[in-house]
Design brief:
about 270 residues, alpha/beta, 4-stranded mixed β-sheet, globular, binds 7,8-dihydrobiopterin, binds fe (iii) ion
C-alpha cells in the first residue's frame, strides 16, 4: 500500500496539521495497490452519483472533459493533457498539503498541485487534508473552466507578492477557502456545490445544503475577515451568484481588498448547530 511521506505534525488552531516535503513528485502510478484502484473507483462512482443535480454546471462539464474512469486511478500526465487543452492549466504531483506561499506559487503559474496518495477506506466520506480524490475529483473539473482558472491565477499572483506571515495573505487565503474550497454557487434559496471540499466529501456535500449550517451571500470583506477551522465540517458557507463576480477583479484589486480586510478585526468564528 502506498503511504504518504509525512515529515512531522505541527500544532494548528483546530488540531495537529501535517507537514510534507514541498517539492514536485512524480506520480508513483505503478506502485498503487489493487485495493487503492478499487477504492478510487468506488469513490468516483459514489460521489459522481451523489453530486449529480447538486453540483454547479461548470463542475459537471469539467468532469465530462476529464473523462475519469473507475477502472484505475488516472495518470496525472493524461489529465494534464486534457486540462491544458480545456483551460491552459497543467497538473503537478505533490506530497500533500503545501504551505500557502508554495501552493499559490504553483497556481500563479497555472499549475494545479495534486496529491499523489489516496485516502484510506475509513476516510471514505471525509478527510480533513487534501488527498488524491479531493485534489483530482474536487478541483480539476472546476479548473477546466477558463474563467475560474483566470480568477485563480490572478488571485494567486496577488498572494505571492506577500511575505509568508503577512495578514494580507491570511485574508487572501480565506477568500480562496470560501470560494474554491467550500464555495456554493447560485441563489441562497437553491445553492449548488462548487467548492472542492464539498464536491469530494460524501458527508459534507450533504451537510452544506442542509438545515444545520449557516449560508450567507458572498461578500469579499466578510469572507476575508472570517476565520475558519480546517479539520471539520464547515459551519458557515458563502453563496456566490456567479463566477463572473470573481473574474471581475484584477490581482491589484484583490490585493487592495485583502489590505482593507486585514486592517479590520477578524469576525467571530461561527459556532456549528448541534
Ligand atoms: N496544499 N496540496 C495542497 N492542496 C491544497 O488545496 C492546499 C494546499 N495548501 C494550502 C491550501 N490549499 C489553501 O487552503 C490555502 O491555505 C491557500
Ligand atoms: Fe482543496
Amino acid at each position: 500500500m502506498s503511504a504518504p511521506r509525512r515529515l512531522e505534525y505541527k500544532e494548528g488552531p483546530g488540531g495537529p496539521i501535517p507537514v510534507y516535503a514541498t517539492g514536485e513528485v512524480e506520480q508513483p502510478w505503478s506502485s498503487y495497490h489493487a485495493d487503492e484502484h478499487r477504492l478510487w473507483g468506488e469513490l468516483l462512482a459514489h460521489q459522481s452519483a451523489r453530486v449529480k443535480g447538486l453540483a454547479c454546471p461548470e463542475f459537471v462539464s469539467g468532469l465530462a472533459t476529464l473523462e475519469l474512469t473507475s477502472e484505475a486511478i488516472p495518470r496525472f500526465e493524461d489529465l494534464s493533457l486534457r486540462l491544458r487543452a480545456a483551460s491552459g492549466w497543467t497538473v503537478v504531483g505533490v506530497e500533500g498539503l503545501l504551505p500557502a506561499e508554495v501552493f499559490f506559487g504553483h497556481l500563479a503559474a497555472r499549475r494545479f498541485p495534486v496529491t499523489w496518495w489516496l485516502r484510506r477506506p475509513e476516510q471514505r466520506d471525509y478527510i480533513a487534508e487534501p488527498d488524491l480524490f479531493h485534489d483530482l475529483f474536487g478541483h480539476l473539473p472546476m479548473m477546466c473552466d477558463r474563467r475560474l482558472g483566470d480568477f485563480v491565477q490572478a488571485y494567486a499572483a496577488a498572494a505571492i507578492r506577500e511575505p509568508a506571515d503577512s495578514p494580507v495573505l491570511v485574508a487572501l487565503t480565506r477568500l480562496y477557502w470560501y470560494t474554491v474550497e467550500f464555495g456554493l454557487w447560485g441563489t441562497l434559496e437553491s445553492p449548488r456545490l462548487s467548492g472542492a471540499g464539498l464536491l469530494s466529501s460524501a458527508s459534507e456535500s450533504a451537510a452544506a445544503l442542509g438545515a444545520n449550517v449557516v449560508r450567507r451571500p458572498a461578500e469579499w470583506q466578510a469572507m476575508m475577515r472570517q476565520p475558519y477551522l480546517i479539520d471539520r465540517h464547515q459551519p458557515l458557507y458563502f453563496v456566490l451568484p456567479s463566477f463572473d463576480r470573481l473574474c471581475a477583479l484584477s490581482a491589484d484589486e484583490w490585493r487592495a481588498q485583502a489590505q482593507e480586510a486585514s486592517s479590520q478585526p477578524d469576525l467571530p468564528l461561527v459556532v456549528p448547530h448541534s
